[in-house]
């Protein structure tokens, strides 16, 4: 299990290592700087609905601390605990703010269902997020399997 985590981390680092502007398979990576894993705000109601109204102030706070990038719906953002529609709304809410704060927006689109992952990735691309974080399926055990999965997305 630890080996899988290391392999995934190595792939992620390889992509971010290309942040000097190098092109890798037709995609230009240009992000540099601290990236915060943002929490997902919820209302204090029985349905635990999203509280998207706090995102502008949260983004401004992070920007004031020189955080130049935001990861949305990752582990701390409880992305996989949200519905597909909630994840899309969350991505859209952050996108509406980061243009003003000049922050890089990375959206986590990983999940158990490849169909859902592809839908979230297509949505993120269509709205113009800066980058994606994709957690490969749980049973991938080699770099080749992880690469094959990411190519499907």
From TrEMBL:
Q: Which reaction(s) does its UniProt entry say it catalyses?
A: aceneuramate = aldehydo-N-acetyl-D-mannosamine + pyruvate
Q: In which pathway does it act?
A: Amino-sugar metabolism; N-acetylneuraminate degradation
Signal sequence annotation: 1-19
Alphabetized, the UniProt keywords read: Carbohydrate metabolism, Cytoplasm, Lyase, Schiff base, Signal
**Gene3D superfamilies (UniProt xref):** Aldolase class I
Recorded GO cellular component terms are:
cytoplasm
One Pfam family this sequence matches: DHDPS
Give the source's domain of life in one word.
Eukaryota
Q: Where in the cell is it found?
A: Cytoplasm
Q: List GO molecular-function terms, semicolon-separated.
A: N-acetylneuraminate lyase activity
Q: What is its EC number?
A: 4.1.3.3
Q: Which family does it belong to?
A: Belongs to the DapA family. NanA subfamily.
Alphabetical list of PANTHER family matching this protein: DIHYDRODIPICOLINATE SYNTHASE (PTHR12128), N-ACETYLNEURAMINATE LYASE (PTHR12128:SF21)
Q: How does it assemble?
A: Homotetramer.
Question: What name appears for this protein in its UniProt entry?
Answer: N-acetylneuraminate lyase
